[in-house]
Amino acid sequence: MAEIESENNWTEVISPKKGIFDVRLYEIWKYRDLISLFVRRDFVSIYKQTILGPLWIFIQPLFTTITFVFIFSRIAKLSTAGIPPVLFYLSGITMWTYFADSFSKTSNIFVNNANIFGKVYFPRLTTPISIIISNLIKFGIQILLFLVIYAYYLYKGKIEFQVNAYILLLPVLIILMAGLNTLK
């Protein structure tokens, strides 16, 4: 009888979800160090084998913006409503890149990491959260690039600084995009 009691002293009990909104946040918080390791792994694996390394975070949106400016402003002559075309296209590219990268990487995260899931238990939600966080860091760096270019146009007097209430909704938009990608 004592032998049976000693076998029932489990350190971790895995139980099924009870509903769609049964997200165990305490469990994710418990594995926060694993999330940080996954974030580090994502950055190292993406930029380690490239010549320019993390500079691609800046180069990719700049080249895409230059292409958009050339095609849509110069060739197609589409109006940007008085906003300099570089700012207009860079703002859209920055937001779209965050959403598209997060969506494409989280869409097959469980297939790509199936070998890890079969070996050891950890909350499965940690892998998409790590993708969202690593893309959020990349997004933050690209927003800084946007703000530098915005400050340049302010300094040159090509645009006026306007306080807009919609800027306060930017964190809500980012949280919505992250949530859509994590819980799809």
3D architecture notes:
By secondary structure, the chain is mainly alpha-helical. The protein contains 9 helices and no strands. Helix 4 (56-75) packs across helix 5 and helix 5 (85-107) packs antiparallel against helix 8. The longest helix is centred in the C-terminal third of the chain and has 31 residues, at 126-156.
Computed structural class: mainly alpha
Whole-number total of structural domains: 1
Q: Indicate the proportion of strand residues.
A: under 5%
Give the mean pLDDT: 82
Q: What's the β-strand tally?
A: 0
- Stretches where pLDDT is under 50 for at least 5 consecutive residues are none
Write the H/E string, N to C.
HHHHHHHHH
Shape: elongated
Helix content: 55-70%
Helix tally?
A: 9
- From the alpha carbons, calculate the radius of gyration and give it in angstroms: 22 Å
> Biggest sheet, open or closed, and with what strands and sense?
none
- Please give the alpha-carbon distance between the first and last residues: 47 Å
Summarize the structure.
With 184 residues, the protein is an all-alpha fold.
Task: Label this structure with key terms.
elongated; mainly alpha; single chain; 184 residues
Write the layout of secondary structure elements.
Blueprint: H1 2-7, H2 25-30, H3 32-47, H4 56-75, H5 85-107, H6 109-112, H7 114-117, H8 126-156, H9 170-182
